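Show me a record, fold above all:
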Amino acid sequence: MKISEVIRSLNTEVVQGQFEDTELEGAYTSDLLSDVMANAKSAGALITIQAHKNTVAVATLVNISLIIICNSRPIPEDMIEAAREEGVAIIRTSENQFMTSGRLFNLLGCR
């Protein structure tokens, strides 16, 4: 499923919309960035509440193309700018990580 399809299906707010509309191959949910570096797979989404520019750096390091910020957390401008420079999409949802993970799991047809 392409990033744009995920965005429409999850009914989220697009915070940083300058990205390549690639296929997502999975997702990883964590608020601990070292955990993301160690365990997230490339070509996926990151579901988190960590709304700061280091999240973008970690996403770029492991080739994550979509960051989903949960709980309507405010997103600082330096994070948005870093994501724009790296071509990483950022979306925001009012849902928590559990609900967002479950919805994305079902959308991607994970088993």
